[in-house]
Structures are given as C-alpha cells and as structure tokens.
Specification:
Strand content: 5-15%
Number of helices: 11
Radius of gyration: 20 Å
Strand order of the largest sheet: 2-1-3-4-5
Structural class: alpha/beta
Number of domains: 2
Bound molecules: zinc ion
CATH class of the largest domain: Alpha Beta
CATH architecture of the largest domain: 3-Layer(aba) Sandwich
Shape: globular
Distance between the termini: 55 Å
Largest sheet: 5 strands, mixed
Order of helices and strands: HHEHEHEHHHHHHEEH
CATH topology of the largest domain: Beta-carbonic Anhydrase, Chain A
Helix content: 40-55%
C-alpha cells in the first residue's frame, strides 16, 4: 500500500475504487452526475444505525440522490439532538420527503451496550434513551428466556420509540397541519438475511400517532 513521507497510507485503493465507480455510473448513464449536481430531490429520509453492516442506500438499492440519510449509534432520534433535528427539519421543510424510515437492526451493538452494565464513557449517555425503553418494557423483556431474543425485541422496541419521537416532533406535526403528506415508518434490518422487517407502526397523521400510544 503506498504511503507518504510520514509513513501514512494514502488510501489509494479507495481512490481507485472511487474512480472505477464513477466511471461505471457514467458508462451506464452519461448524464448521471450532471443531473444530480443541480439539486437533490429524495423522497425518503433514512434514520439508521452507524453500524458498517447496515449501509442505507445499498439495502434498499437506491442510487445517490434518492435517499437522505442520518445515521448514529443505535439509530436514535433524541428530541434534544441538534444534528438529528437539523436533518429532520431540512428533510421535511425543504426537501419535503414523503417518508421517514427509522431503521434499526437485530444484533445492534449499541442496543446491547445500553443494558450490559459496563461503563464506556460518553456513549453511555448517548444510549440512555435505550435504558429508558428497557425499563419501560422490563416485564415483557425479562420474561424472554433467550438472551438473543430479548435483545432483538429491545431493538424493535427502540425503533418504535424513535418512531414516536419523530412523529411527535413539531416539524412533522406542523407538516401534517399544513396538509403535507409525510409518513414515519419503523423497520428492523436482519444482518443474517439482508431483509428488512416492517414493524407495522407507520404513522401518517395525528390519528395514527394517537393510536401508537
Ligand atoms: Zn447498531
């Protein structure tokens, strides 16, 4: 691997990958990048986990320009997080996405770390909302004998909580109030099969939101 004078790898293999990828795109569609240069008009906002095994565009087979993406550890949508809120507002108010998908994944290390009792530092605070979800559903969760199954259920409950966070946000509720169609969906991705499980908690208006409890 080529290195600079300081002995630092200059990631030439990734740059080569990039050139080959761009060439393939142009070979298949000569105007591809030129069209995207002007503006983006994605219909979807993906709120997912940072986990390298859950690449947003690839999973749903969408091209650049088709998916607006926000990722963080354990796919959280905390109502005080300026990063998430900025993404949500831009997606809803400016891009006017039609769908927001909160996408968790089974076997999420962030979800596991939230409840394993070990101290890691700052991330313990970031993961605090998952401990709240665990506490709220502790009777259901503690009744699940198998650790892996309990953990996967917590991944689902975390997604449902984040769907509620998104749907209760003023940016979404103001969009509904002015007649703008935007739905919030909850999915969990399986690392083992590559398939998405729709938790069927889609919220499209205030009535759906009330029903979600
Ligand atoms: Zn994860």
């Amino acid at each position: 691997m080529p290195v600079n004078a300081m002995g630092v790898a200059m990631l030439e293999h990734l740059k080569a990958n990039n050139r080959a990828w761009a060439e393939r795109k142009v070979a298949a569609d000569a105007g591809f990048f030129k069209r995207l240069e002007g503006q983006q008009a994605p219909q979807y906002l993906w709120i997912g986990c940072s986990d390298s095994r859950v690449p947003a565009n690839e999973i749903v087979d969408l091209d650049p320009g088709e998916l607006f993406v926000h990722r963080n550890v354990a796919n959280l949508a905390p109502p005080q997080d300026a990063n998430y809120l900025s993404v949500l507002q831009f997606a809803v108010d400016v891009i006017k996405v039609k769908h927001v998908m909160v996408v968790g994944h089974y076997g999420c290390g962030g979800v596991a770390a939230a409840i394993d009792g070990k101290r890691r530092g700052l991330v313990d605070h970031w993961l605090h909302p998952i401990r709240e979800v665990y506490h709220e559903h502790r009777h259901e969760l503690q009744a699940i004998a198998e650790d892996g199954k309990m953990h996967n259920r917590l991944c689902e409950l975390n997604v449902i909580r984040q769907v509620k966070n998104v749907a209760s946000d003023v940016f979404i509720q103001e969009a509904w109030a002015r007649g703008q169609a935007v739905s919030v969906h909850g999915w969990v991705y399986s690392l083992g099969t590559g398939l998405v499980n729709d938790l069927d908690v889609t919220v499209t208006n205030m009535d759906d939101f009330e029903k979600l409890g």
